[in-house]
């Protein structure tokens, strides 16, 4: 069996300038803090981040925004991080705002190998600009295209050594879906256990989707 365990320093070997990276979390809850710090410390820049939101200036993926490492954000809202809004208005960073349900479905389609999906959400609003519209049974829909990334950074509550993941309560959020839609998936668990210690029906993200596991921080 492949040894998927790496330390945080080796995780940084998978970062490079210009990457598209999906990061789990909802206002920082469920965002892998050590992986985000490693990404910041690595010095990589010109990143495209796909996430539910940009959290706050000092939590979640917020520090990546504040330190000017991001050229583009695709997210459902940015209101909790004023620096994101400032950079957007100043033209320092591109921000693509996507309705939350549309965003997660774009990611799911990317993971499932689908060519996109039809949704009425956004028809007749600024959301439809530049998008193809189709009519089915007299109803207008937008064609939304799938999203994929070079890398996904996920946080889990428990992982086993083959990368099977269990999330805890609301920290689950975007994490299982982004694990489907990236070329490389790195998980940061709170606790690492041996294979067999997680009941099969408790697994939320199967190890087949996870390439690397960052060893939990030693106490």
Automatic annotation (TrEMBL):
PROSITE patterns: COA_TRANSF_1. Its EC number is 2.8.3.8. The keyword Phosphoprotein does not apply. SUPFAM superfamilies: NagB/RpiA/CoA transferase-like (SSF100950). One of its GO terms (molecular function) is acetate CoA-transferase activity. Gene3D superfamilies: Glutaconate Coenzyme A-transferase (3.40.1080.10). Pfam families: CoA_trans. It is an enzyme of class 2 (transferase). Keywords: Transferase. InterPro entries: 3-oxoacid_CoA-transf_A, CoA_trans_fam_I, CoA_transf_BS, NagB/RpiA_transferase-like. Belongs to the 3-oxoacid CoA-transferase subunit A family. This is Acetate CoA-transferase subunit alpha. It comes from Leminorella richardii.
């Amino acid at each position: 069996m492949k040894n998927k365990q790496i330390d945080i320093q080796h995780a940084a070997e998978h970062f490079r300038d210009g990457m598209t990276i999906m990061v789990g979390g909802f206002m920082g809850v469920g965002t892998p803090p050590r992986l985000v710090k490693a990404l910041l410390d690595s010095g990589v820049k010109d990143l495209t981040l796909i996430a539910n939101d940009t959290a706050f200036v000092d939590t979640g993926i917020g520090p990546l925004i504040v330190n000017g490492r991001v050229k583009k954000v695709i997210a459902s809202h940015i209101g909790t991080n004023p620096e994101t809004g400032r950079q957007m208005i100043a033209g320092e960073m591109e921000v693509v705002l996507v309705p939350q349900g549309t965003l997660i479905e774009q990611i799911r389609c990317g993971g499932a190998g689908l060519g996109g999906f039809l949704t009425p959400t956004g028809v007749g609003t600024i959301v439809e600009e530049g998008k193809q519209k189709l009519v089915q049974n007299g109803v207008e829909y937008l064609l939304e295209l799938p999203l994929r990334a070079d890398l996904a950074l996920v946080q889990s509550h428990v992982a086993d050594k083959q990368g099977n993941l269990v999330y805890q309560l609301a920290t689950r959020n975007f994490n299982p879906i982004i694990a489907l839609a990236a070329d490389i998936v790195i998980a940061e668990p709170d606790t690492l256990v041996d294979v067999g210690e997680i009941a099969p029906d408790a697994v939320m993200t199967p190890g087949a989707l996870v390439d690397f596991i960052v060893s939990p921080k030693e106490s």
